[in-house]
Amino acid sequence: MSLPVAFRLAARELRGGLRGFRVFLACLALGVAAIAAVGSVRAAIQAGLSEQGAVILGGDAELRLTYRDANPAELAWMRDISTDRSKVIEFRSMAVVAGPDGDERALTQVKAVDNAYPLLGTPELDPAMPLAQALDGRGGTPGAVMAPVLAARLGLEPGDSFRLGTQAFTLSALLTFEPDAGSAGFSLGPRTIVRAEALETSGLLAPGTLFETNYRLILPPASDLDALKQGAQQRFADSGLRWRDARNGAPGVARFVDRLGAFLVLVGLSGLAVGGVGVSAAVRSYLSAKTGVIATLRTLGAGRAVIFQTYFLQIGALSLLGIAIGLVLGASLPLLLAPIISASLPVPADFSLHLSPLVEAAIYGMLTALLFTLWPLARTEDVRAATLFRDALGQAKLLPRPRYLLATALLLAVLLGTAVAFSGNAFLTLWTAAGIMGALLVLALAAQGVRHLARASGALSRGRPVLRWALSAIGGPGEAAASVMISLGLGLSVLAAVGQIDGNLRNAIDGELPEVAPSYFFVDIQQDQMPGFLDRVENDPAVSRVATAPMLRGVLTRINGQPARDVAGNHWVVRGDRGLTYAQDLPDNTTLTAGEWWAPDYDGPPLVSFAAEEAEEIGLNLGDTITVNVLGRDIDATIASFREVDFSTMGIGFVMTLNPAALQGAPHSFISTVYAEEAAEAPILRDLAQAYPNITAIRVRDAIDQVGTLLIAIANATRWGAAATLLTGLLVLIGAAAAGERARSFEAALLKTLGASRGRILRSFALRSALLGAGAGIVAVIAGGLGAWGVLTFVMETDFTFLPGNALTIVIGGGALTLVSGLVFALRPMAASPARVLRSRE
């Protein structure tokens, strides 16, 4: 029977409006909006990938092979299941332009197509013309189209000539839109499209050259994609052929979007946690102001259940309002910014109303509101009616009854389980949650420490009344220190962590990697070209080091006779073809972690040395058997050893190294890394390109810049999420400052009565705010630094260096934010009449 009474009382309380709940609503709405907006953008991209999957892929299905064409059996099967087909060859090469001061070269990703390309979609060219016309060329020279950025880099205009290998091409037009660009994944060079037949005499597709052949298929409308995929895998399981269909036309993009979206949602949860602190503070402040009403109700016979249910229903209704506002904002912002977001995406996105991210954000909002309001609401049950008029809520026991503690623990478990389920990454989610809870605990302890330190520093303030008043206020019985430290500190902690991560990544990109990385990667070096290649680079005094290795590519298809994906899951080693090599002797600077290297004259069954870290992740042991498909031939190799492989040095590194006899007779090329002084890089490239036009040179600095651009984009996106968290913390800070305005009015009135000048009082308020803000900033630097260290060390597996400049910015920013908010809410107390304020407290 208590619920109807509580409902009527709650409805009457709500008639008083939203006074005291503006910060409550803002914090909840902002946190929900951030999560909803990120989820909506992710859903829009996923919808675009799903709806345009066939166009992105270039067909309903694609069969991919590594540096070989399909054999007659594979071609026959493709003809049987499809209505139309197109063959596309992808590889890297150097586009060369003759100039007055010598040749200019630039790395390009070449797409060699047949007459059927494209099966779906239409490339857009400038000047506008059909692709077939552009590739026809003129005057007996085949045509080509290329990305505008590559043409600008080489100084090319339509009608100019350039070379790929030994073949000359005429640039017919600039490629402004490539419908199937999203399916290619990460690329080191801009696009050039030519006809495959024009490359027959270019010397670029010799045996052993690194290229991929993709067969795009148009399937009958009623085709069963699952059955066709299973049939392809069963029929060609041991040929290295890989199936992909329109349901996942750009798997790399989809994985990236999912992971980045999940990470940003976790950043949004950090903001929601900050907002939860504000929600809890607002509820506590509101209930403190309602002690008279609660006392009256208890005196009239209202029980604990009625009191709890009344304010639970009232705050629940306001929570739903805040969540609704956040959902509207989160759904509207991506729609309003759709043109800007779409222009920056390499894939189509369907910006419309997507329900799933809104439901996800609403669930997060409701769980957070429940979690952070249950505790202050529960404390009202322990306050007796006889003491309610003496600020009983502030004197209530710190811990509520056991049933509320259990309910809080269950809500926290549900929130964590929901976050794990929605993000799909339990490791990152639990670490994020642990970081948030750890930061809250550290900040709460720091708040108590600041209060004790302020009390203990009283002797230092003798003769300094402004400092004494500020320290007395900080060390007093109020909750100002805790509110500022927790609300602002958590927001600054997230910002500090993001800043340290961002700074470390930028330093790694700009400073650390070039010191250990080679100048160039040279690929597709034919075996008969190796003596001349080595003679040029090894005899150059500006070259400090040269490393070479034979290079093949293969697909890891089986582990101990079982399909590799069944054993290794979605590990990157089994997702596609991987580079592999052979070596007779243990290479220099190679450390075995387990097992033994084969003898120099070993000629038995194939053996393989596997990268130790990747082997541990997959679950491999010495003596296990792996099956690697190379050029359609299966090689069953026994794991003889594990070795350390450091891919971060940008040098030559292979997951799998086999004994030479295992790959005997397989056509292959060589790769080489050259470490040279910067001034020598251009002459080395010029001489080698003139002598061996087929060799492709990848400048490591350009590759690092490409990766750096991607990482910086991720950091920028994360920084926006952190900024939203900081904004929420600032709202909580404003709420705390507004809630303390009455106390500051009384304090100012007393000080004025005792003869203090307005200037001294204002300086005291300012000093108090600045000290609390700086304290929050210092704690945030420590908490954020620890968080950044954890992410960089355990998630990104890179070194962490503390950046003092970033830390100083956080401390100064925290002090400035608190100072400004404190001063803004000190103006009215300073202007109030002491007599009026003191009379109101009688």
UniProtKB/TrEMBL annotation:
State if Membrane is listed as a keyword. yes
Q: Which GO terms describe its cellular component?
A: plasma membrane
Matches recorded under Pfam families: FtsX
- Is Oxidoreductase found in the keyword set? no
TM ranges are 260-287, 308-341, 361-378, 404-422, 428-448, 469-498, 720-740, 770-795, 807-827
Q: Which residues form the ABC3 transporter permease C-terminal domain?
A: 267-379, 723-833
- Membrane topology category: Multi-pass membrane protein
The record's section on PANTHER family has: INNER MEMBRANE PROTEIN (PTHR30287:SF1), MEMBRANE COMPONENT OF PREDICTED ABC SUPERFAMILY METABOLITE UPTAKE TRANSPORTER (PTHR30287)
Protein name stated in the entry: Putative ABC transport system permease protein
